[in-house]
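Annual report, structural modelling task.

Input specification for the fe (ii) ion complex:
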Amino acid sequence: MAYWFENPTLKALAPLALSTSIKGLTTIFNTPKMFIGSNVFPEGPVVGPSTMDSIGPRCPQKRAFIVTDDFSKRFAIKAVRFLESGGFTVQMWAGCQPEAPIEVVMECAQAIKAFEPDLIMSVGGGSVMDSAKAAWILYERPDIADLRMISPLDKLNLRKKALMAAVPTTAGTGSECTGVAVLHDTAVHRKIPITHDELVPDFAILVPEFTLTMPPNLTVGTGLDVLAHAMDAVTTPAGNELTTPLALSAIEMVFQWLPRAYKNGQDREARHRMLLAASIAGVAFGMGGVHLTHGLGHSLGAVFNLHHGLACGFFIPQTLQFCSTITDKHLLICKALDIPAKDAGEGLSKLVTHVRSFMASLGVPLTLKDMGILKEDFEAKMDRLVQYAYEDVDNYLSPRPIAAAQCSQVFQYAYDGRDIDF
Ligand SMILES: [Fe+2]
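The model returned the following structure:
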């Protein structure tokens, strides 16, 4: 057993955790303190409450370690100046790599240990925020030798040494509001999702200006990631009365604001709303979970080297259709989007059409064929596609369990864009 999610006890407990009677025993609603807007990193005098009023008193050593990457360090410099103006001694580490490889996380942890901060702040996209979370675990718990075996049931006892702040520079992953960190086990080319309540950052700091330079394809990819998180968070049985309205709100926001952010990257209002939508969806799926969009999308993305959000967002129609034999929660999404439906069947059909035309308007291919995947290549890699999808931990939270043969069928149907009818 190399990963926590291969533990047979956890696998057995996952479906139980989704039953209403068990879920009712303890439900924790866990969010960071959030700061949102253009002036959350003021460097001069401030009228009214400021970000520093919340962070400063909770970090008495005033030592901040900023985790970033080569691209995002241009934004991190603003955070450095802000922290220094609040009396912090700051060190910036810009060594993060895409996909958060474990060996890079270990390097980051070494640098954190040498500096001994009482605040760790990540500034970057999902990989940066996830790397910082994992390095934080190693800083707080030097006794943990293997990040791959951290289970959600372990007690980590973080925050003995440092608090965590996350500053996203993309509007997609929602990692600033979740207890999830996805790392890359480079030795075996496998994603390791660590999910733990204690990993939810203490502070999420949203600066819309940091997302203005995202090119249109990244804007769409990350935006579809938000939509996939929110759609799954509505239909999963692990959702509740707190998470479902948040997910529905995020869905409405994506339909309203993503086209504007796509057409004009400098549209500050659209960027602001999309950044907020990503965090709202993060709060919702951080507790309710994502399922088949990500189970299938992780596999597609890994095998054909596609952007995470594009690969996961691609499977929104198929996921809605596959799960509709078990749940009619997609009607909640119809209602939020003002799609009239007299029954679950009509709602599903109209919603899928709506999602597909939305995706097409953003230039997103609706079939795997149109993604440029050649038939021979697709068939040659089918076994690997199915294996990765079937083994993906996110499937645990699907309202309808999916068998390996069904994963294969979904991929086959998705190649030509056929509707799921099984
Ligand atoms: Fe995602």
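The pocket of fe (ii) ion is lined by residues 173, 225, 229, 294, 308, 312 (CB under 6 Å).
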